[in-house]
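Key idea: predict the complex, not the pieces.
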Amino acid sequence: MSSSFRIVNGRVYDPLHDIDGVVQDICVKDGKIVADLPEDVPSIDVKGMIVMPGGVDMHSHIAGGKVNLSRKLQPEENRFDYLPKTSITRSGTGGTSPSTFATGYRYALMGYTTAMEAAAPPLSARHVIEELHDTPILDSGYFMVLSDNLMLFQLLKEGRKEEFKQAVAWYFNAGRAYAPKLVNPGCGQTWKHRNKQIVNLDDNVDHFDITPRKIIEGLVGAANDLGLPHPAHIHCNNLGIAGNYQTTLDTMRTVSGQRVHLTHIQFHSYRGKWGGKHLSAAVDITDYVNSHPEVSVDVGQVMFGNATGMTADAPLAWMLRNISKNKWVNCDIENESGCGIVPIVYEPDNYVHALQWGIGLEIFLLMQDPWRMALTTDHPNGGSFLNYPRLIRLLMDRQFRNEEIKSVNQKAIQNTILLDDLDREYTLQEIAIITRAAPAKILGLKEKGHLGPGADADITVYVEQDNKEEMFATPRYVFKDGRLIIQDGDFISDHEGKFIYVEPDYDPTIEDTLRPFFEDYYTIAFDNYAVGDQYLHRHQVIPTRDQLAVAS
Amino acid sequence: MSNETSQYIVENATCTFCGCVCDDMILTVEDNHITKAKNACVLGKAWFAEHTVEDRPYALIDGKEATTEEAVEAAARILAEARFPLVYGLSDTTCEAQKQAVSIADLIGANIDTTTSVCHGPTGMAFQGVGESTMTLGEVKNRADLVIYWGGNPAESHPRHFTRYAVTPKGMFTPNGRKDRTVVLVDVRRTASARVADIFIQVKPGTDFEVLWALRALVKGGKVDPNIEELTGVSMATLEDLAERMMHARYGVLFFGMGLTMTRGRHYNAGALLALATDLNEHTHFVAKPTRGHGNVTGGDNVVTWQTGFPMAVNLSRGYPRFNPGEFTAVDVLAGQEADAALIIASDPGANFPKAAIEHLRRIPTVVLDPKPTPTTQMARVAFTTATYGINTGGTVYRMDDVPITLRPAFPSPYPTDEEVLKAIRLRIRELLNLPEGAVY
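Result:
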C-alpha cells in the first residue's frame, strides 16, 4: 500500500476540530495526517462509513510483572479463548489477561491503536517495556508507581522537597516511564508489616512519619513542577470500601487547583456506613469533578462476567481474596511497591456488583464535560477491554440500557438514580471524545485522538449500525501509522507500535543521594538499575512543558 | 576491549550461573578470558574461569565442520519439514533468544517446553491452583525475621543466597543482619546448609506433604494426627514450635527447592507449601519463593508466558497455544516417540533426561545451540557453537524473583549469539515455507 493516500467520502468524527459527522477527506502521508495531497494519490472510498481517530485506552493493565503472573495463574481462561496465528501474525491466548500478541491484536480488531499500562514499579521497568514491545500495533507507555517508594518517603520525611522532585525525575529517566502513578498511597509499607491499615489521609505511614496526604501533595506537586504531559494519576485510598467517597473528595480537595487525574473513579464513589453496605456517591463525586476543571477522571466501569483483580493495591487484593477465598497472588517489590491478583466474576444478581455497574453508568451520565473523562473498565479489574463495544451501546442506546438495568439486582438499582431521569444518550461525537479525543488530551499526547494535520495516522473506519455494540466491535478498516492493518476483521499487515515515555530534566547530583540508599536496601546494583537504550526499539519521547518551551 | 594483550576490569557484571543472578561481579579480563571474578561464589568463579573462547568449529553438520550459514540452512530445513518438532531448553540463554525460540515454535507449530518442566514445573502447576504470596529478594534482606528453607541446599546450589539476600545481610528493618533472623532448614538429610540454620528439621523422605499439611492444620487451629512423628519423623512439639514461630514472625519467608517438586507428591508438595504461606497471611505477613536453578530459567517462564499465556509444556501444532504438562512436556513428547525433530537451546537433555527420551533424541534429527560440547551436541544433526550469555553477550535475564537484569559482556566471542542464530533460522524457515512478507514478530 502506498505511503500516501486519501480516505474519501467518510463521515468524519474529529471532536478536537469540532468536526461532527461531516463528510470530508482524510489525507495520509508517511504515517501522518496531512492537510492535502496531490489529486493522483490512491484513495479508499468509505462512502457512508464513519471515520474516527484510533481508540486510546488511557488506563489498562496489559503488560509487566503482575499481568504475567495473572496469565500464569489462570490457564483455565486461556484454554478456551485463543487467537490462532495467521501467515503474518502470531498466535496467542485470551481470557482477562491475554498474551501480549493477543492483547495488541484484539485492541486493534476493536479499532484501538493506543493503550497505556496503568501501573508498574520501576524495578520491573524492563519487564514492562519488553512486554509492550511484544504487544503489536499499539502505541504504549506505562505509569510508574511511586506512592510507596521508600527512597522518596525518606526525602519526604526529611522535608527535602527539591531533592524529592529531582529523585522523581531520576526514577522517570531510569525507568522510562510516562506518568507518575499513585496507588493507595502509603498502603504498601503498612501492608508488608501488617500494621494498622491506613484509613484517613492523615494516618501515619508506619516508620516514616509521613501521611498519604503528604505523599499525594508531594507527587502531584512534583509532576506539575516537572511539567509532565500527564499529571499525577491517582488510585485513591480505600478503594471499594463503603463510605470511601469521603476519601476521594478529600484527595481531590488536598490538591485543589492543581492538575490531577483520578482513575477508575467508580471504585471510589461509594456512600454508606464505613465498611458497611455500599450506596452510590456518583452524584457527590461528579458534582465535585464537574465544578473543578483541574480534575480529570476515567471511569473503571464494571461489566458482568469474568474479571481479574490485578492491582498494586496489595491489601485490596487480600480483602478481595478473603471475600471470594479464590486463589490469590501477592508480590512485594523491594523499596517500591507490590501487587495482588485475584480472579473475580461480576454477577448481575449480586447487590454490590450490580451497584458498581450502576454507579459507573451514573458517572458516565452525570459527567457534564466529556473532555475530562475517559471510557475504561480498568481492564481487567472491572472486566476485559473487550467489553468496550457493549459499554458504548449502554451509553448510546437508552432502550437497551433500561432493559439491562431491569435485568440486574433491583435493590442495587433502587440505590442509584439510573431509573429516575437519567435518560441521556451519548452521541457518536461524545463517544469519539471519551474513547479517543479526551484520553489523548488528558494524556498530553498531541498526535493522538484527532485527525488534524500532524496527527499520527491512526484511523478507524466503522460501518454505522443500529446495534452500537456490533458496530464498535467490528471496524471495517483500521489504519496504524498510515498502514492498513485490518480490513473486515482480517489482518492485512502486522505492525510494531511505538513505546512512549518522558525524560524530565534532572540534576545528576541527585545520584549522590540515591546511590547510598540503593547500596543499603536494593539487591540490584545502582549502575545496573537504569533501562538502557537497547530496550527502546520504535519509541517517542514526549517533551515536558519546559522542554517544549526550549524547543520552540 | 578486543585488544588481546591488555587487562581491564568490568564492574557490575552479572553471573548467570544460578538463579541468584548476582549483578555485583568485578571481572578482570586478560587475553579474552576472565582471570579474576571478585564477589563470585565458588560456582560463579568456575563459571567465569571455564568460559574462555575455545578453538571450536562454528558448527557441525552430521559431525562435519560447517559454517554458521550452512548450519542455518540445514537447521531451517529440518525444522520446516518436521511434523511434530520440539523446541526445548532455554534456561541458560537471554530473553532475547527465548523470544526468537518461541517465535520459531509458533511459526512451525512446534511443541515448546523449557527446563522448568524438569525442575519447578510442579511449582508452576501448584501456582495455577492456589496462587502464591511472594516477593523480590530485597524484601527478605530488608524485612524478613524468619527464613525457612525447605527441600533445598542453597549452601551448595546457590552459595550467595545466604549472604546476599536472605540470612546475613543487614536491611532497613533488619539492621543487625543475621542476629535479627531465625533460620530454619527442613530437609530429608542434614546438608551443608544445616550449618547456617538455627533449627534443622529432618523429615522422612517422601513425607514433606504430610508435614506441610500438619502445619497448615496447626496454623488454622485444627487437629493433627498424633501419629505424625511416626509417619514423618517430626515430633508434634517441633511442628507446634515451628507453627508458632511462623504465625508470630513479622515477615516470614519460605524458600523451597526441588526436594519438594521432584519427589513423591510433586505439585501437591509445592501446592501445600504455597497454601501454607497463604494461610499464614491470616496471622502475619508471609511469602514463599522457589529457589530457581538456572540463570535465566525464570526469564524462560516469563517469555513463554507473555507470548503464549502458559509457562511451559505448550503445544502450538493447532496454530494456537495449548498447555498440558504430562503430554506436552519435553520428556513426554520424546519418551512417547511423538517428536520427529528437535531444536535444543542451551540445555543438555542428552545427559539428564530419562533413557527412553534420550533414545528418541538419538533417533530424530536435532538442532542444538550450545557454547560447549555436551552429550546433546554430540548427538545433534546440526550443532552450533554460540557465545556464552553474560560473558560474551548482552541481553536480559530474570532473577529467580522475576527482577530483570541487563547483562554486561566481559569480552567478545567469535561465535554468534543464540539470538542471532535463532533469528537467522526463523527468517530462513519463513522463506522455505513461502510465507508472505509483513510479519514483524
